[in-house]
């Protein structure tokens, strides 16, 4: 069906070969907003909350480029996807890894995370924290309670969340995927969430380099 839609679009006027808004086609951005907006509980996302990018990797690059400056710090999971560090260091920023606990289904180790923020990084320019759920490479799917704990921690420390959810909904058995922005919404929307995803993984179209970021912040 996806291939048929592309073929139909290419063959239908106006011709598809041409420049568009740098943030993406309005119809595509609205469709993405509708998909993520179903978790908004009465609030409505619009196309102005969405930027289309070249895959989820390109979306992460846009988000992190906007957040980071030389000398700033980004918290990233360990073990985790190495691209976060590559992007951060390309802007002269630094990553600090926070541990995931293998004894607790690879959830965040809040004891060590608090020690990092309250001691080692106290007074430093920490710009945000990456939450990758479902996780690459561990495969962990965070529980709703754990995501609530993350949101509360970020509220306490004024940390925006970069939610890498490109594997969203790819779960098995009894595991349920909960979008980070949905959790933040339920807790009062005090934590800004920048969600990154794409059709390659979440919509099972590997190789189709279409991704996006969605800004959800009151």
Short description:
By secondary structure, the chain is of the alpha/beta class. It has eight helices and eight strands. The chain has an eight-stranded mixed sheet with strand order 1-8-7-6-5-2-3-4, sandwiched between helices.
Our measurement of the CA-to-CA distance between the termini, rounded to an integer number of angstroms, reads 36 Å
- Classify the helix fraction into a percent range: 25-40%
Shape: globular
The fold-level CATH name is Aspartate Aminotransferase, domain 2
Detailed description of the structure:
It is a single chain. With about 220 residues, this protein is α/β, with parallel strands linked by helices. It has one domain: Aspartate Aminotransferase, domain 2. Helix content is about 35%, strand content about 20%. Strands 1-8-7-6-5-2-3-4 form an eight-stranded mixed sheet, sandwiched between helices. Strand 6, helix 7 and strand 7 (about 195-200) form a beta-alpha-beta unit. Helix 3 (about 55-65) packs across helix 4. The radius of gyration is 18 Å and the shape is globular. The termini are far apart. The mean pLDDT is about 95.
Main traits of this protein?
36% helix; globular; 8-stranded mixed beta sheet; Aspartate Aminotransferase, domain 2; alpha/beta
List strands and helices in order, with pairings.
Elements: H1 2-11, H2 26-37, E1 50-53, H3 55-67, E2 73-78, H4 83-90, E3 94-101, E4 107-108, H5 110-120, E5 126-132, H6 144-156, E6 161-164, H7 180-186, E7 193-198, H8 199-202, E8 211-216
Parallel strand pairs: 2-3, 2-5, 5-6, 6-7
Antiparallel strand pairs: 1-8, 3-4, 7-8
